[in-house]
Each structure stands twice: as structure tokens, then as C-alpha cells.
Amino acid sequence: QVQLVESGGGLVQTGGSLRLSCAASGSIFSGSIFRFFHMGWYRQAPGKQRELVASITSSRNTNYADSVKGRFTISRDNVKNTVYLQMNSLKPEDTAVYYCNANTGGSDYWGQGTQVTVSS
């Protein structure tokens, strides 16, 4: 069974920081296979579509939404099968449910999401 479990969300004031974690488990990630997955963080605010926030490839190339460039950093630990999202200088518009995604070819997996709320 495949599981992506996000953690680290919460309530923070404008300008604050949070670090999200996404731990991957299950047979599909065993035997160092996790390192081949393209990992991403998405978010969905109320009434809006889910959008890509940041992604990191198996070779650690990263990509960011323009709205978070310079503030967010995505990283991965292939030993711990975990991907992180360091979020600094948070703004109220960053408020959303953040989802972890794992993708390789035709296989696509999602976590259950973690709420991030930034108060003004």
C-alpha cells in the first residue's frame, strides 16, 4: 500500500516560517525506488484550483511557482524517503491545503494534505 503522509502545517503569522514534510511509505517506494520519483508540493485554497507550488526531480532539479520563488525551498532525503518544503516569509495568500505528490511515468500518488493558515 502506498502512503504519502504530510506534516508540519499549522497557523503562523505573516512573515513567519513553516517546514512541511512528506514521508513516503509502501512497497512501491522500497529498495531505494523513491529516489526515482519526481516529487512535488501542490496547494489548494478555498474556491481555487489546485496549483503546483514546487517540484524536485530525481536528479534534484527544482521548479517553483512564481509566487513562491525566493521564499520557498523544496528538498528531498532519499534515505528517509521524505520530501520537504521550507516556507519562509509567509503571506496570507499562502493559506491553503498543501498536498504532496509523487510521480513516475504513469503512476501518480497523493497525500491527504496538511492545512497551512497565515494570519495577517
Task: Describe this entry's structure for a reader.
The protein has 120 residues and is mainly β. 0% of the residues lie in helices and 53% in strands. It has no helices and 11 strands. The strands form 2 sheets. Strands 2, 4, 5, 6, 9, 10 and 11 form a 7-stranded mixed β-sheet that branches. The N and C termini lie far apart (40 Å). 32% of the residues are buried.
Question: Topology of this protein?
Answer:
Elements: E1 3-7, E2 10-13, E3 18-25, E4 38-44, E5 51-56, E6 62-64, E7 72-77, E8 82-87, E9 96-104, E10 107-110, E11 114-119
Parallel strand pairs: 2-11
Antiparallel strand pairs: 1-3, 3-8, 4-5, 4-9, 5-6, 7-8, 9-10, 9-11
Average pLDDT works out at 95
Which structural category do the helix and sheet elements fall into? mainly beta
Poorly predicted runs are none
What is the number of helices? 0
Shape: globular
List keywords for this structure.
53% strand; 4-stranded antiparallel sheet; globular; mainly beta; 120 residues
Describe the structure in brief.
This protein is mainly beta and 120 residues long.
